[in-house]
Design goal:
332 residues, alpha/beta, Metallo-beta-lactamase, Chain A, nine-stranded mixed sheet, seven-stranded mixed sheet
């Protein structure tokens, strides 16, 4: 076993049998079948190839360090809906929304592609069909440890089925409220909204701030500018480098004042090809602030990876992948 999950370090010498076989094979080539003691051979090998072995160990250790500390946030292409899959550095998985029922196959295929069979958290931002519809087969077919939502009750059959599945599967359920905090490994979450007051469906959305080292991600659900103003007036620190734009880029969200308060470098908009989102006014306000814009209806699934110190963005559309995009260079 070359990788020790508990300690997150390479344990190259754990499998002695494997290394003895390599040594025996090399000894034939290096010493022309001359029999020497194993200890003498190891010393000779280290002397002859010490620099090469040093480079190999450094490269392997560097790669493991990068892999072990990576947070991955995937804004999935689910047409006009929201679905965000988060993979933490310690291999925990968090799913925020699931898109609509029509797009659930996209979500299931993505989870299967990465061999994800268990979700530690499922977070439902708003009980709207294009947010929770795709969660139904996920709750049915995958192991889910905990569900968090806004607590707003809806009268649709999709929402009733959603609640029934949570009960049938005996999944831990919690309602998120302003000020609630929870942590998944090194990743910290804070609920910014809703509070105890009553709002309409969209403005009852769960608004989340996620923090990992130097980076902050803001997930706005479906809220509009009225709720944005409430967040501004709360005097909370809602700044974030990465903003998931509210309500699919509606002209009623992402006000100029809100953008000044959040000061994002990158904005993600989840919308479909055959709808009217995002609205031109929303895009104009983002451009006026020189914010990099990534849209799922143009780029497909958008993946952000960070070790907490630097960040990269890649996009995937129709199986064509563009990688290595720096957050400061904009869209490819």
């Amino acid at each position: 076993m070359l990788y020790n999950e508990k300690n997150n370090v390479l344990n190259i010498f754990e499998n002695q049998w494997c290394w003895y076989k390599i040594i025996d094979t090399l000894s034939i080539k290096l010493y022309n079948n001359v029999e020497i003691r194993r200890e003498e051979f190891i010393i000779a090998l280290l002397k002859k190839y010490s620099f090469v072995l040093f480079i190999i160990i450094i490269v392997l250790a560097f790669n493991v360090t990068l892999s072990a500390g990576q947070l991955e946030v995937n804004y999935l292409d689910v047409e006009l809906g929201d679905s965000i899959l988060i993979k933490t550095p310690n291999d925990k998985t968090i799913l925020i929304d699931g898109g609509s029922k029509d797009s659930c196959n996209n979500l299931k295929n993505y989870l299967s592609k990465y061999e994800i069979k268990k979700l530690d958290y499922v977070i439902s931002a708003v009980p709207h069909p294009n947010h929770i519809g795709g969660l139904l087969p996920i709750l049915e077919e995958f192991k889910v440890e905990k569900v968090i939502d806004s607590g707003l009750r809806d009268k649709t059959s999709i929402y009733r089925e959603y609640l029934d599945l949570i009960e049938q599967k005996n999944i831990t359920y919690k309602t998120g409220r302003t000020g609630d905090k929870f942590q998944v490994g090194e990743i910290k979450f804070e609920v910014l909204h809703p509070d105890k007051h009553t709002y309409n469906l969209k403005n009852s959305s769960l608004v989340l701030l996620m923090k990992y080292s130097n980076y902050r991600f803001l997930f706005m659900g479906d809220v509009d500018s009225k709720l944005e103003e409430k967040l501004i007036q709360s005097n909370k620190n809602i700044s974030a480098q990465i903003l998931k734009v509210g309500n699919h880029g509606s002209n009623l969200s992402t006000s100029k004042e809100f953008l000044e308060k959040v000061s994002p470098r990158t904005a993600i908009i989840s919308s479909g090809l055959d709808d009217n989102y995002p609205h031109a006014g929303n895009i104009r306000r983002l451009n006026q602030k020189n914010i990099n814009i990534y849209r799922t209806n143009k780029k497909g699934t958008i993946t952000i990876k960070t070790d907490g110190k630097s960040l990269s963005i890649s996009t995937q559309y129709d199986s064509k992948v563009n990688t290595g995009i720096n957050e400061n260079t904009g869209e490819p």
